[in-house]
Write a structure and sequence with these properties.
globular, Glycosyltransferase, 13 helices, 10 strands, single chain, two-stranded antiparallel sheet, alpha+beta
Amino acid sequence: MKWIIFLSSFLFTCRVDAEFNLTDALFRSYYGLKQRNIYDYDLHLVHRPFSEFPDDIVSEGVGYGLLTSLYMDDHETFDALFSNAEYHMWNGQYYDWHIDREGNLLDRGGALDAEEDIALSLIFAVRKMQKKEWPDDRLIPYQTRAQQILDHLWTVRMITQDGNLCPGNNWGCDQFVNPSYFAPAWYKIYARFDTSGHDWVRVIDKNYQLVEGSPGYDNGLVPDWVSVNGGFMDNTALGYNAYGGGRYFYKDAIRTLLRIGLDYLWFGDERAKKYLVNAKDFIMRKGGAPMANFFTIAPDASLLPEDDVWIFDNGQRLRTRREHSHMTIAMWAVPIYLVGSESEKLSFKDELSTFYEIGASYWGKTLDPIHQEDIQHNEMYFDQFLTIFGALIMDDRFINLE
């Protein structure tokens, strides 16, 4: 209730007119996501309203929800998400990755990126409690579960002893990797929290080498799925979003801009900076903010095929895979805001503003039949979270909370 009163007061005092206000848009879109994806359902977890299994819940959404509520200082929602994930998804070693809207198990197994984001969120929540910024009634449960997640990443083989990142527990591992699961800033936080002495430095070094071995590295591009040496996986026996056999910089891979970007923002890692400079130079050569999109990796780093589409919402919705949207703009804005010029930053902020209708509770357009970026064609889940994450960086809010 305190959060609702605070947010209502904040929104009332924010300037709402014809001028785009990034902070206002960020808070409004979070409030809309919270109501639409969490509290409009009986089970207060993050739901995917238009997925292939409409209204389902995935552990990725738990991680995203915890991170977002943490950075929006929403303790009530953070605790609700954690409590419900514990009851409906935690199996003693990891969070099963997929349940239905009522909490019934759909698919067993852990997802590395979700486990990583949940652990980082819990560690930062512990820090907020230790600093007396949040009530400390859940300090021990948060602290205990965070350490257990870190331990289990190694014992259930989501991370191999030589530092490979497994997309799921004991799956992929020595054959293929999802580069967008590589979270070097997270691992540096883990290393300071972890009481079990796991070799996080090895994980960081090994996976920077993998990114640097990507065939698109000079352009800041990595495939959604790669071999453990960074090369293409020329088959379809891959994981979720395995579009084109992993030969594209698509919906998974675009998150690499964010995860590596935070390593530079928080720790100034020169490997991160080099990657970001490559990405920034590439998108500016392509034409800057109006060209924020998904790309092929080789040979020409061109846009995805214009006529390629994907179908979701139980077969009821269709949209193009080529996507100039609030989400792609916000992700490409990460290297721009971290290593770009002031004029480049302004151009991306201005472009993002065209995908926010003043006073709206979501990112995107109400109606856009040409590009299909309207709310009838967007997922209203993945796109909203990634836009919020990019906006947090653009608004100087995605800080190290340690």
